[in-house]
Every structure is written in C-alpha cells, then in structure tokens.
Amino acid sequence: MFHKIALTGLSILASLATALPATRTITVDDDRAQCQAAEFTSIQHALAAAAVGDTIRICSGVYAAPTGGLVIDKDALSLIAAGASGTVRIVPGATTPGAATTPGLTIAADGVRLQGLDIARFSGAGIAAGSGRPVAGLVLEQNRIHHNQIGILLQRSGALVARNTVDHNALQGIVAGPGSAVQIRDNLVTSNSTAPGFTAGIEIVEAAGGVIVSGNKSFGNAVGLRLNRSSGVMVQGNHLNGNRLGMDVFASHRNQVTDNEFNSNTALAGVWLRQASSGNSVQFNQATGNRYDGIFVFADAAQGNSFDGNRLEGNTDHGLHYAKTARARSGLVVARTQPMR
Q1: pLDDT tens-digit profile of 136-171?
Q2: CA 8, CA 305: separation in Å to the nearest integer?
Q3: HEC readout, the chain
Q4: Other beta carbons within 10 Å of 229
Q5: How many CA atoms lie within 13 A of 170 on its CB side?
Q6: Which site among 143, 226, 243, 285 is 20 to 30 Å from 31 CA-CA?
Q7: Nearest 5 degrees, angle CA 164-CA 174-CA 271?
C-alpha cells in the first residue's frame, strides 16, 4: 500500500512539474561582439519573447529604448547586466521635439529585478513603477541612474532599492510616492536637484508606514532627504552631508530619525522641522558644521516632537534653534542634546 501511495505521489509531482513553465535565460548583445550566441540584439525584442520568470542577460553595449521607453509587464522577469559596471547602457532612441516626458523603464509587473544597468538621459524618470497598477517585489540593485528628469519614481510599489548610484538627475534622485512600502538602503545619491528649491536627493511623499531609509549617502543635492507629509518612516544611519539642506521634515508625523549625520550642509541647516510636523523622534544624530543651525524647529511645529542624545557642534548660528514660545506651546522635548555652536 505504501509503495502504491508513493508512486501516486511521484506521479502527481511529475504532473505538476510538467504543468509549471520552465524558466530560461535569454541573452542580448547589441552587436554580438561580447556574446556571439546572443538570441537578440535589442532589449525590446527580448522582452517580447520572454515568459514569466525568465532572466534576460544583457551584454555590454548601448541599447536605445523605443518611443515610450521599455515596458516590463511580465511577472518575475530579471534584467541583469553581464558586462562590467557601467557597460550596459540604456538610453533614449530618436526623440521628437516637444514630445511628452518619457521614462526609461516602466515596471508594470510583480517580482521584477533590475541589476547592474546604466540608465540615462530620459525626459521622464529613469525607472518608473506603479503608475498604471500597483507592483510588488521589485528589486533595484547596483544600477546607475543618471541625467534623467527623475532618477527612480515609485508609486504604489513594494520595493527594495539597494546599492544604486543615483546622480545628476534634474529633479529628485529617488522618490517613494503614496502607497509605497519601500526599503531604500545603501545607495549613493549625489548632485540631484541642484537648483534652489526643495526637491531632494531622496523624497518620501505621503508615506503611511512601511518605509525604511537607511545607510544611504546623499550629498551635493538641494535637499539630502525630504519627508513630505509622511508618517511612520524609519530614517537610520544615513549620511546627509554637503547638501544645501540636510533633511527637511515637512508636515510629517511620528517618524523615527536616529543615528544619522547632517554635516556641512552649505546653505541652510542640518535639519528643518516645519509645517506642523508632530510626534517625531530625533535622537543620537550628529549635525556639525552647517551653514546656519544644526537643527531648526519652526514656530509652527506641532505637538510632541522630541530631541535626545544628538551631537550639535560647530554650526554657524545654533546647534538646536527653536522659539521659546514654540517650545511652550508645542510640547517640544529636549534631552541630552548639545545645543552648541
């Protein structure tokens, strides 16, 4: 009896294995110089031929995206650079003057991975996800995204954004918009949004929890990091140095800001807390050598913000700057913080 049951179980497993589609690796090389046996010379054609779960291996070369950019709309596809860092470049094809802004890659499927790609010079975002439908399981790792309007634009996305270089984009470097649960970890975000204003290297917009920003180096931007009407964000272990403003907390509530550096920001301060931002905990950070203040709390800051164990030294005006009336009215809590110049 046991033998018969075992054989039946094996038959079922064999049937399931036959029913599941076999994944494969598709190779692309623009000139078949590095990968002579490549099936395709364009990423667009490889995407059209790919099935759910396939890997597209892209050899060194320059790949022109079609009008409207590349669209990934099959689940669990991986686009992996086979060449050395920076040698797989995705750029716009021929463009029409006055045409609408175009993203480089649009993600419209779940479980997509992009790794090792160089995506540059698109009139829209280098990578855009979640604009047409929510996406989950997106992984963006070790890419360089540069000289686009926006580097990475995530809306209604579940994503890991790790170890990318995001630089010289006209507006934001990385944006996590409403409905996104995103981990933004260990990225280098530099020289984005350099015109005066409040666009940022990293911007979190209308988050309601589920966002972690950690271990990033964001410098040379208009703002290193901006929390924009967001709550429940963990900001930990980032280096937000050498921007015009290190961090802007705008109308944002109940966020945890800990163990970060806000040093040598050149035009404003290490941290701004403004527009009725409330319930934020700012602890064990370092803000030194900033143009005006280490941390500036605006008079309109609301209830329950707390500052504990921060090192605030060598700032031109104040370490911690707030109006006495604001503290009395808003319940500002200051403990073990060094409000030194």
Answers
A1: 999 999 999 999 999 999 999 999 999 999 999 999
A2: 64
A3: CHHHHHHHHHHHHHHHHHHCCCCCEEEECCCCCCCCCCCECCHHHHHHHCCCCCEEEECCEEEEECCCCEEECCCCCEEEECCCCCCEEEEECCCCCCCCCCCCEEECCCCCEEECCEEECCCCEEEEECCCCCEEEEEEECCEEECCCEEEEECCEEEEEECCEEECCCCCCEEECCCCEEEEECCEEECCCCCCCCCEEEEEECCEEEEEEECCEEECCCEEEEEECCEEEEEECCECCCCCEEEEEECCECCEEECCECCCCCCCEEEEEECCCECCEEECCEEECCCCEEEEECCCCCCCCEEECCEEECCCCEEEEECHHHHHHHCCEEECCEECC
A4: 16
A5: 10
A6: 143
A7: 110
Say how many C-beta atoms besides its own lie within 10 A of residue 204's C-beta. Answer: 27
Share of the chain above pLDDT 70, in %: 85
Residues 6+ positions from 108 with CB-CB distance below 8 Å: 71, 72, 73, 129, 132, 133, 135
**In the chain, what are the domain boundaries?**
171-341
In this structure, the number of other CB atoms found within 10 A of the CB of residue 339 comes to 18
Tens of pLDDT, residue by residue over 215-271, are 999 999 999 999 999 999 999 999 999 999 999 999 999 999 999 999 999 999 999
Tell me the β-bridge partners of 127. 105, 152
pLDDT value for 194: 63
User: pLDDT by residue (tens digit) across 51-77?
Assistant: 999 999 999 999 999 999 999 999 999
Handedness of CA 233, 236, 242, 247 (dihedral sign): positive
pTM metric for this prediction:
0.90
Note the CATH architecture for domain 171-341.
Answer: 3 Solenoid (2.160)
